[in-house]
Amino acid sequence: MKCVSEKSEDKIREAAKRVFLKKGFDGTTSRDIAKEADMNIALTNYYFRSKEKLFMEIFKDLMEMYFQSIILILNKPIDIKTKISEVVENNYQMMKQEPDLVIFIMNEIHKEPERLLVKTALYHQLKSTLFNQQLDEGIETGKLRPIRIESILPLMTSCIEFLFLGKEMHQKIFNMSEAEFEAFSESHKDHVKAMICNYLILED
């Protein structure tokens, strides 16, 4: 019985994630989630009580999926150039697989930052990463340009994210097919890596 209930909860959670990513919190109803999960609405409410409770669980999971993979790379015992390359690559692969993820996170935080970010410890996690220590040491020894993690992290992520968020517009403006955009995005990713490293690293 417990196994059945766990499977039902997982099914509802996965369905809710798909619907929330597509419609956001305000645009999603409990009926939408039940329909996506192919379950009746009473059962959906039985497991998660409310749309709000389910949303907060899903949002927390998605935030961790987005940031924790980056933090894991930032804490790797590898040189800063390789680390930048891996963060950009990670972001690129994530945007290819889940292009709606960033739009969802930004839209929801924009609407209710106090509610959704009140318990986050992301700032302290990022500031205490090995990457931030490498930045400080490199700047102090004159090997790196003086730039804070608050600036370099958006450079590593937004240059990739914006490309995918504006994919349809980019394809229309530059008359690109799906295959052409795929090839272009791969080369763009390499340009992003090179530009950040060439700017940041003064002595290699």
Brief descriptors of the model:
mainly alpha, globular, 204 residues
Distance between the termini: 60 Å
Mean pLDDT: 86
Portion in strands: under 5%
In one word, what is the shape? globular
Q: How does the helix and strand content classify structurally? A: mainly alpha
**How many helix segments?**
12
Enumerate the spans where pLDDT stays under 50 for 5 or more consecutive residues.
none
Largest sheet: none
Percentage of residues in helical conformation: over 70%
Give the oligomeric state.
Answer: single chain
Number of strands: 0
What is the rounded Rg? 20 Å
SSE arrangement, N to C: HHHHHHHHHHHH
Would you mind describing this structure in some detail?
- It is a single chain.
- This protein is mainly alpha-helical and 204 residues long.
- Helix content is 81%, strand content 0%.
- The protein has 12 helices and no strands.
- The protein has helices at residues 2-27, 30-37, 41-48, 51-74, 80-97, 100-111, 113-117, 122-127, 130-140, 149-165, 167-173, 178-200.
- Helix 2 (30-37) packs across helix 3.
- The longest helix has 26 residues, at 2-27.
Brief summary of the model shown:
The protein has 204 residues and is mainly alpha-helical. The protein has helices at 2-27, 30-37, 41-48, 51-74, 80-97, 100-111, 113-117, 122-127, 130-140, 149-165, 167-173, 178-200. The chain is built from 12 helices and no strands.
